[in-house]
Structures are given as C-alpha cells and as structure tokens.
Amino acid sequence: MNREKIKVGVIGCGKIAQVRHIPEYMANKDAQLYGLFDNNYERASHLAEQYGAKAYETMEDLLADPEIDAVSVCVPNFLHADISIKALEAGKHVLCEKPMAVTLEDCMKMVEASEKNNRKLMIAQNQRLLPAHLKAKELIASEAIGDVLEVRTVFAHSGPDNWSVDGKNSWFLDKTRSAFGAMADLGVHKIDLITYLTGHKIVKACAQVRTLDKKNADGSPITVDDNAYCFFAFDNGITGTLFASWTNYGEEENWTSIYGTKGVIHVFRDPDHAIVMERGHEKTTFNFGAIQTNDNQTSSGVIDMFVNAIVNNGDYISGEDVLASMKAVFACAKSAGDDGKGKDVK
Prior knowledge:
Rossmann fold; Dihydrodipicolinate Reductase, domain 2
C-alpha cells in the first residue's frame, strides 16, 4: 500500500536550505517539498519553480496552509525561537537549524511549545549522525580506550562570508541577527558532539573569543567573534577543549580526539582514515568516508531522521535533548564577556 507523503515547507532559502534541506527532502521517498518562503520572494520563487514547489509571499501564509505538515526553519539565529514556536502553534512539526536559539529562555519556550502542541521539535545537530561519530561512541561505550580522561575538538574553516549566498553581507557576521560568531556557529556542533560521545554533561565552561580578521563589506570589523577558545569540565571530572575558527584559509579542519586510560581515538584527524584508534603500539583504523564540508556536501541524515520521526515515530534529536549543549554555549558566551572567567553551566 502506498503511504501518503508528508508535505514540507522550508522557511528561509539561503545556502543551508539550498544545499541540505531542499535536496534532502527531494531525495526522501516519504516527503514532498511543498512550500518555500524567504524574505527575498524572488529567491523563493526561483527555487519553487526549480523544484516544483509553491512560493509564499508571507511566512504566515505558509504556516496557515493546512496542506503543510512540517517545516524546516533556516533563518538567522535570532528568529529561530519565534518562528519555530509559531510553526508549532500552527500544528507543524519543526526541524530548526542550529544553534537552537539565542537565549536559554527561548530554548525552553521552544521545548514547551513542542510539548503543548504535541508536535516534534528537532534540532539539526547533524554531527551526531555521522557514521564515524556513531562508531566512536560505540568504541567509547565499550571502553575500548578505557575510561575517558579528556576530549579535544576543532572546527575551523574560512568563514560564512566565503560560502553564504550573501557573502560579506551575510547575517552570520552581524551580531544583531546572529547573536554569536564562530563560537556558536561552529562550536555548537562540537559542544553537542562531545557531550553526545562521552555521555556526560558539561558543568563548567571557560571561553575567550576574538575578532582577528573578518571584515564587513565596508571594511569595518565584524561584530561577532571569528575565533573562539573554550575549556570545559564535565560532570564526571573529565576535561575538554574546543577551538572554533572562521579564519582557517587552508583546508577545513573538523576533528575530535578522545583520550582514555588505555588509548586514544582520533576522528577525522587522519586524511586516509575516518577513525584511528591507538592503544600503545597497536593501531586500528576504520573508514567511513570523509566528513562533510561546505565544498563537499553529502547527505546529512538530518532530514531523513526528521521525516522518519514523523512518519514512523522514530528517534530524533529533540529540542530537549539539545538543551544541555546549549546551556554550555551560553556559559561560554557569558565567560567570554567576563574576561574568560569560568561559568557554571546551569
């Protein structure tokens, strides 16, 4: 028996929608890309014509359409909470891009709206879904490297001005719209990942952020950080570090290393192997393909997970699941604003 496809709308038609959400919905057998909205109506119309969807002149029109079952929220950070809550209240399931929201209060309101309206709220923390990270979590859980002592993680590329559809005019570079810079844009991926891999929450965070190089179109410094250095203490006593940067003008770095009492797991540090596990002189490698980059987009698994959660009530990365990592992001932001003094995560 043929099952009716869920009909999906995408709110915000910038780069992440164009390279991930739209094509991945198109590739999913249980989803139909039904509607698009963008403040740039011409952009939405062009994409709607390209993909056989409908362009809406207002977001309210899209959310009021009873044909639409679910939406992706792909807008500037400061709008995540407001639009996600409106969509949930309109009876739509919501897949929201990261970071979840710009305040903890907004994050909590999103979770409350999901529960109140009995609709799913998923956050696009795609690094959890990469096969190499799933394998690393399995190895850690099996104590293949003993007890974890420390984690180190890096995410560094040339910045959103080099891949965003708006270039140096990208909202990512504007604090009034993004709220955060590299620390939350890239760092939220890695903070969420290391809490997921270790199975432990961050209880204290210390951060320093800097704007070292990035400029606006008029030559003035951007109003958010382009480099961030973060230090963490976990609830079980282990430690972690994060470096996030928009000023890596070489090959993108996106790796994580986990150090244990019996060995080390390096994920995406070796160009030839997704995972290298070292235990003394013993080395074991695992291959799962290269990590996604802005120049090498592969299926994220996010859209497939979201659709499966709606159609088959499958597992998904809920807003509530992501609260712990968002609390660590906010603690980093507070610490950076207080001369790098450590902050409790609460």
